TrEMBL record:
Residue span(s) of domain NmrA-like: 7-263
Gene Ontology molecular function, alphabetical: oxidoreductase activity
UniProt keywords, alphabetically: NADP, Oxidoreductase
Source species, domain of life: Eukaryota
Organism, scientific name: Pestalotiopsis fici (strain W106-1 / CGMCC3.15140)
Pfam families: NmrA
Protein name as it appears in the record: NmrA-like domain-containing protein
PANTHER family membership: NMRA-LIKE DOMAIN-CONTAINING PROTEIN-RELATED, NMRA-LIKE FAMILY PROTEIN
């Protein structure tokens, strides 16, 4: 299939213009534009002039910066804004703090009538790849401990980050997805599936921390403390929405109004979790850094296994 995207530009902070990652984008033909999301609206409008589609990918602490960006996008005549979603399916309010903040942005986009497409992608492969004693999976295991929540049988959509780009390229060129939510994912796995797969591929016995459903739900809704910070709580809320509530699956996504990318594009191939694990073992994958450090996961483990809040 011919390329659906003719020209790509990237908005980059002035302080990041000399980074190697930005230079890599230049080499690939991406036009680099210096921009400050917290700067004057007119400057953002100028930076967006002549563009058709705007895609945001930001760290959690910068989520609300998209409000000014969206307002500038309307003035610049952007035809479709893809805001910073890229996560698991969850209801709009009261289950995940991070989702609640994102919904503020989504609501602003709708209020100003900026054409949009919201894309969620399920759990990354790195978020469900277990930790093995040998450390063979390295930072492909973003979670620091193997928590087995309930009986481990709740299904969840999982996706390789390598597949996100091809999904997005199809979605943003599709008139059916304008002003819609889309769920783009690879396959459906349970925690037991992930643990079994890791054991099969490595031959190692995995250390598992059993956690009750009630304990996860309780901690997800507990008040923050000096020890149990917002950053701990956000990941526990992921456990709650995915493995306790079972939100991150195609059936619930449809109930919330999402379109299913696998139904929209049945010809689009995807990478399985097993393929990602094998690439990891063969040293053929690059990963994000693991979430938190050992102390981060020790705090979560302590509280989930009966520590005092």
């Amino acid at each position: 299939m011919p390329s659906l995207i003719k020209e790509v530009s990237a908005l980059v902070r002035a302080a990041s213009l000399q980074k190697q990652s930005v230079e890599d984008l230049r080499r690939r033909g991406v036009t680099i534009i210096a921009a400050d999301l917290q700067g004057p609206e007119d400057d953002l409008t100028s930076a967006l002039a002549g563009k058709d589609v705007l895609i945001a990918s930001l760290p959690p602490q910068n989520t609300l910066d998209q409000i000014g960006l969206a307002t500038a996008a309307v003035k610049a005549g952007i035809k479709r804004f893809v805001p910073n979603a890229w996560a698991t399916v969850a209801p709009a309010e009261g289950v995940m703090i991070l989702r609640d903040v994102k919904e503020q942005v989504f609501n602003h986009i709708k209020k100003i009538r900026l054409p949009f497409t919201i894309i969620d992608i399920g759990f990354w492969h790195e978020g469900v790849t277990p930790v093995v004693p040998s450390g063979k999976f390295g930072t492909a295991s973003m979670v620091g401990k193997n928590f087995l929540i309930g009986d481990g049988s709740t299904p969840s959509a999982v996706t390789s980050m390598d597949d996100v780009g091809p999904f997005v390229a199809r979605i943003i060129a599709d008139p059916r997805t304008l002003n819609r939510y889309v769920f783009a994912y690879g396959e459906i796995k349970t925690q037991l599936d992930c643990l079994s797969l890791a054991k099969k591929l490595t031959g190692e016995e995995l250390e598992v921390v059993p956690i009750s459903l009630d304990k996860v739900s309780q901690l997800a809704n507990a008040a923050e403390t000096d020890e149990y910070t917002l950053w701990h709580k956000m990941f526990v809320q992921y456990f709650n929405t995915v493995w306790v509530r079972g939100d991150n699956c195609p059936r619930y996504a449809k109930e919330l109004g999402y379109m299913d990318a696998k139904e929209l594009y049945p010809d689009l191939p995807f990478k399985t979790l097993e393929e990602s694990m094998l690439e990891t073992l063969q040293g053929r994958r690059n990963f994000p850094e693991a979430i938190g450090d050992d102390q981060y996961w020790e705090v979560i483990a302590k509280l989930l296994t009966g520590g005092v809040l």
